[in-house]
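Minutes, methods subgroup
Present: GH (chair), OT, SY

1. OT presented the first of two proteins processed in the latest run. Sequence and structure tokens recorded below as shown on screen.
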Amino acid sequence: MFLKKEFRIIFMGTPEFAVESLAVLLQNNYNVIGVVTSPDKPAGRGQKISQSAVKTFALQNNLLVLQPVKLKDEIFHQQLKQLNADLQIIVAFRMLPQSIWSMPRLGSINLHASLLPNYRGAAPINWAIINGETSTGVTTFFLKHEIDTGDILFQEGTPIEPDDNAGSIHDKLMIQGAQLLSKTVNAILNNSYAEVPQNQVQSTIIHHAPKIYKENCNVNWNLSARTIHNLVRGLSPYPAAWANFLDENGCLHPFKLFKTRIEIDNHQFEPGKIETDEKTFLKVAVKDGFIFIEDIQMSGKRRISIQEFLRGFKSLGKMKAV
């Protein structure tokens, strides 16, 4: 058994999701001796140099920050060796080479935003909602060669409510995951844990969660209302589902969808047919009903409600969603 102040931890992470975990570790007085995060890079319209959310938080708490461009860089390896960590914790970071994750005497653990072995990959929150799952969760596990395949330490589930989207589930799992991570580190500190190989976990169908690309976000109006609605939920607020309005002159008007609702109806309209009163609602026909668009963003504009959109965009009844 080790005292917290003697137990040396290196934390690796980049986005906001990882900040909560780092904050909880510090709140629980764990000895975080260094933080590894992504290099600063240009961001936004002005391309100003921006630092990661984890770096911002780490500097505010006077933590040592390392920002390797290449994880196999020899100087970075030497820096890690000199820190002499007992454990490395990885939350929403890059894929590590074995020379890095195996360096600490107790290895490296990862927090993943799904109930492994389901939804291994870069976008577990998005794909769980896109696929219409009604529950998800968080998992801590030891790293090994293949991504997201290490032995499970702890898991906790959470429901996906009908009104949840990727943003709300992200925030729920960010908080839940941070607490589970603290529980995991405490168990390792006290040598009071068991490892469960993922092939021993009962699961009917294993879904994967690869990185989201633009083509994954394109709405196909020939699909069912529920499928399209789940796509919108699973990509909101980022990167957002997208489609086009085709006007009577053959011009395409691209837009993003952030919020929808569905109406199941046995209609005779062609998929993509737009129905609107041009004041309060806009709905698009799909094979088994309608998709009501509630929050929308046209190219180069801000996100607005459909009512605000209809006040400035006329003749939609003559257009088609494609």
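2. SY then presented the second protein from the same run.
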Amino acid sequence: MRKRKIFLGAYLNYPNAQNLNCLALAKYLDKDKFEVFALSTHFGTRSLDVNVNLFHCKRPFRISKYIGFIWGVLNCEIIYLPKHREVSGWLLKFAQILGKKLFTTIEINMCDVSKYNMISNFSGIENLKKYFSYIPNIFGISKYLISQSNCEVKLNSNPLYLGVENDIFQSSSISKLSNIVFVGSLIKRKNLNEILDLAAKFHMLKFHIIGNGDLRQELEMNATDNVIFYGRLTQGRIADVLSEMDLHILLSRSEGFPKVILEAAAAAVPSMVYNDYGAEEWIHHNKNGFVLSRKQEVIEKINELILNPLLLVSNAKEAFKLAKKFSWRIQIKEWEKEISRLR
């Protein structure tokens, strides 16, 4: 059987969401069916042990990365480009002219203008529509994102769910609520001030904040003594911290399908989130996590979990099952199926 050459347009040795997803794809795609091409960076920190063809983007990175993307397009028949800020429209048009099978994934509501939005990143709706007109296969990573696509960019009807590498995480032994964790960028959209307010109210609990960003200094200045800041951690270190946690909390109002929910679940840690972005699709309230609508409900639920630790324990067990369902070993089969159907 002839192997199909696929280019994963991300930097496998530098940890961020799209890069880590492509690293997982590179690891789990069937090597009897696919020959994988991808990028790495001169400032990356990961050592790679996956069987892929790599283009190493050297200094000056701004030029080298474009050469790397061209290299991937020229070498492969299937092109996956999830990093929209990294890829110019001319490269998409070039790939289209060459008859490549292009696809991408959308990880936030691209048409939402009331919150963090892609429209402003593209300097207007017309530029966004033109950019995505070059990509014939556009997948939302949840059913909710597909249903919210109302800005004349047509998404495929089936979602491509992201997965989690369960083997990296150790199951947490939860008996009562003591440690609450947030993992993500310390930016305004993540609504971290609400977490600081919770820490001030629940002084008997410890709140662990993993990540870095523009707001870190301000948050540290305003935090109470029961808030611990870790900065940016490797995925392995995040797994270690999660194994000591009892609850993951994410109070942003705009997300896609947050990868950290699955990572926490893989450590048997349930998540508490808001209901603004369709989280009910995978989190069943009071079964494998908690989907709430406002801050007062979060306060009430934390009080309930303190008084009723068995509810936390039962949700932790079901969260662990959720992570098993979304294991990359399972999700990769759906990816391979959709790749085989690309136009």
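Chair's summary of item 2: Residues 4-163+328-340 form a domain with the Rossmann fold fold (CATH 3.40.50.2000).
Next meeting: continue with the remaining queue.
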